[in-house]
Amino acid sequence: MKNPIRVAVTGAAGQIGYSLLFRIASGAMFGPDQPVILQLIEAPIEKALKALEGVAMELDDCAFPLLKGIVQTSDPAVGFKDANWCLLVGAKPRGPGMERADLLKDNGRIFIGQGQIIDAVAAADARVAVVGNPANTNCMIAASQAKRLPAERFTAMVRLDQNRAQTQLAKKAGVDLTAVKDIFIYGNHSPSMFPAFEHASIGGKAATRVITDLAWLQGPFCETVGKRGAAVIAARGASSAASAANALVDHVRSLVTPGAIHSVAVKSKGHYGFDPEVWAGMPVRTTTAGSYEVITGYAMDDFAKSKLAATNQELVEERAFVADMIK
Length: 327
Ligand code: NAD
Ligand code: LMR
Fold this sequence. Notes:
Blueprint: E1 5-10, H1 15-26, E2 36-41, H2 46-62, E3 67-73, H3 76-79, E4 85-88, H4 101-121, E5 127-130, H5 135-145, E6 154-156, H6 159-173, E7 180-181, E8 185-186, E9 194-195, E10 201-202, E11 205-206, H7 207-210, H8 214-226, H9 228-236, H10 242-255, E12 261-267, E13 279-286, E14 292-294, H11 302-321
Parallel strand pairs: 1-2, 1-4, 2-3, 4-5, 5-6
Antiparallel strand pairs: 7-10, 8-9, 10-11, 12-13, 13-14
The protein binds nicotinamide-adenine-dinucleotide and (2S)-2-hydroxybutanedioic acid.
Nicotinamide-adenine-dinucleotide binds next to helix 1.
């Protein structure tokens, strides 16, 4: 039996948390032979902490063989202590009619303190995955606070967008979604993101040879994927939660699976023309568990270049908006 790893989750009593924790404890995130200790962090609010107690009771009641302990706390110094993975979900979600920019300052502040504490108390091999919105910019804020942990350890989630894009392509082509490969998300987790359809394949052929309606790919496809979060909010009255939790399981599972190729928002370092200091979605290949390299070889046509420029511009503007939160 392997030694348990410590997985810290913020916002553990929230909507995403409720769909996420049981999957981590069941082995879906780290594999069927990897025991875990869940370190559950909630805001210091009585109602949230009470709800967390109930979630912990339910975790106990599942009798998961891989779950070797549960910590419940509102103190991040306790919750992140020795954590190998820090899953930063806790943040305000967007409600109906809200723009993502409305969240920038409110949620950004959370990630200053969490970045500092993770850097101080988490395990030497700690990895951080940010889900709380605006995810790319929150990730940048947290990473900027860290002096010990390198920036590469901080990733933000664009996997929900990749999953959404894969399904939309499969539906349009009328194929099983497993036939769709290599659809990657570039840029911000926002409507400006670019799902790069020209690099995707469907049943082994270029996606653009299977779906020849370029106007659909450039228009409704990009728009549907980019605005799917808002569409779910409009329909459900609340932000997507189960699909976001599922995407985080995929995000981490792929990051611990050598050879996996997937979309992750990482520090750009100038790849694909992104500002070197922003966190932008792009394709990566997992090298060793927890480490990855950016796949840099994809050529971009004029349409793709204009989409990349627009999403980069938004990320640069978000960075300027929270400049006072970046070290
Ligand atoms: P929710 O309101 O149901 O839960 C959030 C939880 O976080 C609450 O229980 C709250 O008490 C807690 N929290 C707030 N501040 C905290 C802090 N400082 N430390 C610890 N916990 C804290 O929201 P949700 O639906 O679970 O969504 C969480 C976040 O995820 C939102 O910002 C949402 O926009 C974002 N989200 C991101 C994606 C993505 O693809 N990146 C997708 C869906 C949702
Ligand atoms: C989503 O993509 O579903 C979330 O990020 C919710 C949102 O605010 O768009």
